[in-house]
Specification:
This protein is of the alpha/beta class and 343 residues long. The chain is built from eleven helices and 13 strands. It has a seven-stranded parallel β-sheet with strand order 3-2-1-4-5-6-10, with helices on both faces. Strands 7, 9, 11 and 13 form a four-stranded mixed β-sheet that branches. Strands 8-12 form a two-stranded parallel sheet. The N and C termini lie far apart (46 Å).
Length: 343
């Protein structure tokens, strides 16, 4: 019988690309958890397979509904769980802090507690990947690369919620011997990246300008950040390799890893790269006060030593290729008549 990989948050960029990776590179089945009203944009290329039950299916549940999670686990009994579902937008978290904390902390606790209860009831013992975030480091001091033992410093309600998520993944591994591991992914992008994130909103605005839907001005917030970038398609490969390593007993329960690109950019450099792919030469960059956060995580440089010692992995897709694919993604969406909000 084929192994099953449960992906919470399968409709997101990373969740959908992890589904693609599993389907293309293994014989495992994929079960995607989603709320019934979520948009399916990132899964349209898989809907025929979903309809035919060709190694992929969907299960409706909500992180804030413990009973739904418990029923799902009993029905599906996945061998692997990759927990990616979250309220994942740092800027939005300033507007909805309680929902962010509820979904990301209590929702994660609901999932892990449901697994623990099932393990105690009948020995069910899946490998569980808990997705934290590099945002846990928050306002880190510039200079040295961020390692796994760098102190946390929350810089948004989202950041604080992911600190809670991070500790929960580690706690359930250490206290209850659930086979959990935690990942803190640095800035990741490429096709399907939500337009609320910096490089994606820049690419989207360039595509809107090229198509005549926006005046030739890119509106941005704070540009003082320096950070690494990696393609999400590289990141999901790391996720899967860690799942396999944990299943083989090569990773301790509750272990935690940074996963980051190894190419670093200041944000104005990212804008210049994306503008370099455009035929328009009249585009200006302006600061939009509505895009500024009360506080920013303005230094995101990482040390990948630990994960590269645990698995045979390194980023393979060049950042320039990632940025070009992202811009082409938005061009394609707009050409199909899917005109995105300017946000």
């Amino acid at each position: 019988m084929s192994k099953k990989v449960l992906i919470t948050g399968i409709t997101g960029q990373v969740g959908s690309q992890l589904a693609d990776f599993v389907l293309e590179n293994t014989s495992y089945d994929v079960v995607g958890m989603m709320r019934w009203q979520e948009p399916m944009d990132n899964l349209y290329h898989l809907t025929d397979r979903i309809n035919r039950k060709d190694r992929i299916s969907l299960h409706y549940a909500d992180l804030n509904d413990y009973s739904a999670l418990a029923r799902m686990l009993k029905a599906v009994r996945p061998d692997y769980v990759s927990h990616l579902a979250a309220q994942s937008y740092p800027k939005t978290s300033f507007d909805i802090p309680i929902e962010t904390l509820q979904t990301n902390i209590i929702g994660t606790a609901n999932l892990l507690e449901a697994i623990r209860q099932q393990k105690e009831a009948d020995g069910y013992d899946p490998v569980v990947h808990v997705c934290s975030s590099s945002e846990v480091y928050g306002r880190a001091k510039p200079g040295m690369p961020l390692a796994e033992d760098t102190p946390f410093h929350g810089a948004s309600p989202y950041s604080i919620s992911k600190i809670g998520t991070d500790y929960l993944g580690r706690f359930y591994g250490e206290a209850y011997r659930l086979r959990t591991f935690v990942t803190r992914m640095g800035t990741h992008s490429g096709p399907r990246r939500s337009d609320v994130f910096f490089e994606s909103t820049v690419a989207k605005q360039i595509a809107l300008i090229e198509a005549g839907y926006q005046t030739p001005e890119i509106r941005v917030g704070n540009l003082s950040s320096t950070r690494t970038f990696q393609d999400a398609r590289d990141a999901v490969r790391a996720y899967f390799l860690l799942l396999e390593a944990s299943a083989q007993g090569k990773i301790a329960c509750g272990e935690y890893f940074n996963i980051a690109g190894e190419e670093a950019f200041q944000l104005p450099e990212v804008i210049d790269i994306l503008l370099g792919f455009s035929t328009r030469t009249d585009i200006k960059v302006v600061t939009d006060q509505d895009r500024l956060r009360p506080i920013d995580a303005d230094y995101q440089m990482f040390d990948n030593t630990k994960i590269r010692a645990a698995i045979d992995w390194k980023p393979e897709i060049p950042a320039r290729k990632m940025f070009e694919d992202l811009l082409n993604h938005w061009r394609s969406e707009i050409a199909k008549g899917r005109i995105p909000l300017n946000r």
